[in-house]
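Pasting as-is:
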Amino acid sequence: MRKASAVFLVAVLSVSVFSAAKLHFAAVWAGAGAPAQGSEESPTMYGLAVSVFNQSWNDPRWISELELSGCKWARMNVFNENRSTHFNDSLSCFELLQNESIKCLGVFCQDLNTWKVPIGNLTEWQTLVNDALDNYGQFLDAVECWNEPDLPINQEGCMNGPQNYTEMLRILYDETKTYAAEHNKTINVVAGSIVNIYSDETSPGSGANFTQAIRDYGSDNYCDAYSMHIYKTGPGGNDSDEYLQGHTAGEAYDYIKSIADVNSTDPKPLWVSETGTHDNTDEGQASQMQTWFTELKSVSCPMVFWYNYIDPDENIHGIVQTVTFEERPAFQVFRAHAQLAQPLANTHLIVRGTDNRIYYRLYNSSSRAWEDWNVILGGATCDGPAAAVLNGELHIVVRGFSDTNVDANNTLWHISINLATGNPSDWTWLPGATLSAPALAASKASNELYLAVRGLDSRVWYMSWNGTWSSWNVILNGATCDGPAAAVLNGELHIVVRGFSETNADANNTLWHTSIDISTKTLSEWTWLPGATLSSPTLAVSDILSRYYLVVRGLDSGIWHMSWNGTWSDWSRIAGGATCDSPAATILDNDLQIVVRGSDYDSLWHYLPSNDWTRISGRTYSPPSLTS
């Protein structure tokens, strides 16, 4: 792109209708990042046990369905490079999970050795632990010591009772914390994983007694959390209630939690690192999940993993069919609970004020109310700003502004605002120029921003930011008469533009779509979309729903939208609204949220499906921007 020789001018001071009152940003609990808290204020987080045994992870639907479920944690066994044929498959799975920001609990158990060959002694265990950390440590957010050690079938080799288990836990804890410190990351260590809760309570090997025994041997010093499994009976069982003996999941949780907490100076959180049912019917599985998830939430369990996502062979426990990837009813139950556990996202509205400065305000999702306007004191723009939130910062890109130098209006400038403190960075000039408002899209999976603009040649140009800006890329074919819309979904940068023709004005109202593979830079063909618009289009993306929404001003000045999740839906018109400009849109709690300029050319109107249209304070002469 051609650089315009101009400077970015500070806006002329003028009276604005916007209040410059200080905006106080509410702190948002990052639940997916720190689930090891059991207070009533901390929502229950939901994860899935993940298997690699049937190669299903090679199918792209493996990760797309997992992402759609709302799962934020995955529990997987780790393997030894020289002793297991599953090692390479599991590493690939862990990498896929990390790319989708799904946190990982790695289970250090029998699978570290050749299958069904006991780990002989603690020295061998230490070697296997260190090998696993070297291979998997970069992907791990937590590690769990062994699997159901209270069952005799899992007591073999050096894992032959509570005392030796505690020694294995100590080794895992020491080596994990050393690795984490060396690599500047946090890895929690989870102990227990017991399952035989009420059966044979007089036996030293029962789940309750095993938990008490390892605490007597000092396990509190070697873990960040305890864990338990909740099943009615063991593998191959028929839900005979052998393990629970008529107790509810909530009662079982409180029972083990009381043992883990008694006489403790530092009570540990208790996770349910595995729960499921042997009832293979769709109705039975969904009903059991709903019952147990509800009970565990009521007792403030901070983390629950369902066993499992997709089964290796037959669909005994999985919430997704093995071969077809068809969602079973329990999938929707899981998704509903997982979504409720996510912290509510706030929405940010950014506009060009009547004095050409940039103003922004927050829509608080908890209170369902707009907070006061803030003004960025330095800088001005001649057009609508572009905005995106990434890693706790509000990023804004604008065209420049000058009363005397037209070329300055085509320059590009970037600023970021820390949402915790409200502190802005300095403005940074970006090489390149544009004739229309820019578009900004965030990829949370890759921690990158993507800026897309209409170049001075009317072609679409884009570049990325991950701390520094890349060079420009141009889409060689195609042109547009207006600013493009951009969104990132499933590793692709999607672009929608108005068409362009020097001889046919109607062609300027057509809509066209293309996508770019972020990793390979491969470009799809331009696709014509039915419909037309008088202003630049807008894209709003939902990672949870794995789809994005195209929102436009129709030829009737109404607001129209359609969605894409592999194919395009039909158009729908939002009743009761009209605009003179491009709409702003984002996704809030899986609902499409829109802000537009009114038909009077400067008022601002906010749309939510639950509230219909509401006028909000402030004025602008350019298209607004929304992001969350």
